[in-house]
Write a structure and sequence with these properties.
This protein is of the alpha+beta class. The chain has 13 helices and 19 strands. The protein has helices at residues 2-15, 27-30, 39-52, 84-89, 107-121, 141-145, 181-194, 226-246, 278-284, 300-339, 379-382, 423-431, 496-503; strands at 57-64, 70-76, 94-98, 132-136, 198-204, 214-218, 252-254, 257-258, 268-269, 288-294, 344-368, 385-411, 415-418, 437-439, 443-457, 468-482, 487-490, 533-536, 544-546. The strands form three sheets. It has an eight-stranded mixed beta sheet, with helices on both faces. Helix 8 (226-246) links the parallel strand 6 (214-218) and strand 7 (252-254). Helix 5 (107-121) crosses helix 10 and helix 8 packs antiparallel against helix 10 (300-339). The radius of gyration is 25 Å and the shape is globular. The protein binds zinc ion.
Length: 547
Amino acid sequence: MKRTLILYFLFIFVFSFELFSDELLTVPEKTNYQRTSTYQEVMDFVKALKERHPEKMKIEFIGITTEGRKIPMIILSKHGIFKPLESRLLNKPPVLIMANIHAGEVEGKESTLMLIREILENNREDLLEKQTVLIIPIFNCDGNEKMSPKNRRDNGPELAGERKNGQGYDLNRDYVKVESFEVRALITNVFNFWDPVLFVDMHTTNGSLHQEPVTYAPNIAPEGDQILTDYMWEKALPEIDKTLLKKYKVESIPYGNFIKRDDPVKGWRNRAIEARFGTSYYGLRNRFSILDENYSRADFRTRIKGAFSFIRAILEYTNKHMDEMCNLIREADLRAIKEVKNSEFPIRFKLTKTYDFLIKSYIFKKRKILESERERYPKNWYGDYLVEKTDKKKNYCTTLYASFKPYKKVKLTEGYIMLPSERQVAMHLKLHGINVQVIGKSFKGKVKLYKVIKIESLKSPYQGHFLHTNIDYEEVEKEVDVPKGSFFITLTQPLSRLVAYLLEPQSRDGYVAWNFFDRIMVNQWRGYSIYPVYKVLKTPKVQMHNF
Ligand SMILES: [Zn+2]
């Protein structure tokens, strides 16, 4: 009897942590992984937890979507820190985890809900020791509610939301131009306001073929601070990868795709370097970011388990190394203030090797595309052959290509002057948190200006734009009259990398490319007008005030 009783209590002790009341179960847990949660179900879940732990959890709303939904952000703190100033003063820096930017990619949403429950209900408050945790479980609320069997569903659930937001934008292409309500809210109310040390963005892969359920990448934008990128590749991600395998029994590899599927040893590539993507954008702000892409062919339960384990492993890492990470970003800010002006800024890149690694994949076979399949596999996309996965597993030693060597650089100066006609652009720079000043008195000064010779653009619309893909300029050094009311954007500021990225006339993903100056840069009478942003060799010695 005594022994049975001991066993009984042992059983209760071991398993009680896994038993939750109905309101504390996620929708996939309640439906045998058939369904994903709606907006209302996400809100009900977090409210139930909030009622049980009001002193450690707060629900805030960072903004309102096109269709009027409030975007929730959950703040977790065991020190009662629910404001950015407190987190700074009490040295519990924020870490941000965001899911559902593409609302068809839903395991991030489910796993962040599990993470909140895990921390508060399962004795994982150790994860809040050195940090304040911010969680946005359902960023694209409007997309999430358009559940349909026509959307991507991967290997479960039965229905999932759609990729675009309520305006039709892909939110993960919006970080430079910021036209969506969601990204605007994220940049102003979270990035600028809270300034998280790390931003984790959760997705599902698009067609890569391997066995590992979790894939990851740090910021790989080559215009970012290389020391931060190296730290992620060399220290943080290998350690997180190791925890994930050893503690949580989940395999992971860097995010990418085979360069040649019929020859996997040729390499594994990730080229998403532009700041239109959230993780690259965040890197240009001298902060850490991690892209999480869970393997789309893994079943829903495995994807949730992988994602849930990954974010726990990340928080374990940041909690342990927070001081080190804060020092690194502080130094990166100082470098951005001191070293970017007058430097050679890279603008065109060649893909290079990051490191060799082992990938668990499959044997692939090549077969000719039948004429009857042409509708599904158009010739201009697929050519004549398909390379398909077989069921036979195979490991490959391959090379990760996710690093970039510049082959073209431009010389930066001390800053940019923007003519008064660009007031709207100046406001947009402010939205990014960039320091903009207004020139109080007209003056004569030596500048570099850019005469447009030729503009090439995309033939079809992309994210509401006809993106300029190539612009030829003639650079002229000249003394000009700078009118009162012009704007000065100094490169002596923490966001200098982002400033150069947005304003350099040849940037492939800056304001010129995204049509911000199309009002002015038109081909009329005697050729194109001049680019309305000058580069000043020296900071003007005139009266200025903050815009
Ligand atoms: Zn995605």
